[in-house]
């Protein structure tokens, strides 16, 4: 990925990718093979966006922090399209462990109260 060795060895290059993957893969969508691939794509996009934001904001002396993961997770929620049936309603998002435990309630658009799954 043409990453500087200092940021790679210190772990900075992988943080936003892992954070974006966790947000999409376990927090906002139920876990299945389609959302798993979506989460992997989110991880790659978050890592690349982190590098781009670090270079852009580094010229003015600002840190990129976790902006890349936040922007990519928001973008993935807006562009979910065919995966919208697997989206967890915003009012019912809990921890990833709770979402995984109650997976049977979140099957393909069958929410408990019948709420909309739009963002």
UniProtKB/TrEMBL annotation:
The keyword Repeat does not apply. It is found in: Cell membrane. It comes from Champsocephalus gunnari. GO terms for molecular function: urea transmembrane transporter activity. It catalyses: urea(in) = urea(out). Keywords: Cell membrane, Membrane, Transmembrane, Transmembrane helix. Residues 97-119 are annotated as: Disordered. It is a multi-pass membrane protein. The chain crosses the membrane at residues 12-31, 66-86. Belongs to the urea transporter family. This is Urea transporter. Its main location: membrane. InterPro entries: Ammonium/urea_transptr, Urea_transporter. Pfam families: UT. One of its GO terms (cellular component) is plasma membrane.
């Amino acid at each position: 990925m043409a990453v500087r060795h200092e940021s790679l060895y210190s772990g900075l290059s992988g943080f936003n990718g892992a954070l974006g993957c966790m947000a999409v893969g376990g927090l906002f969508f139920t876990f299945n093979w389609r959302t798993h691939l979506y989460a992997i794509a989110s991880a790659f996009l978050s890592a690349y966006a982190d590098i781009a934001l670090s270079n852009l904001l580094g010229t003015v002396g600002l840190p990129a922090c976790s902006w890349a993961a936040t922007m990519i997770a928001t973008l993935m929620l807006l562009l979910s399209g065919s995966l919208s049936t697997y989206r967890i309603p915003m009012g019912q998002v809990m921890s990833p462990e709770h979402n995984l435990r109650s997976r049977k309630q979140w099957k393909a658009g069958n929410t408990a109260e019948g709420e909309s799954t739009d963002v």
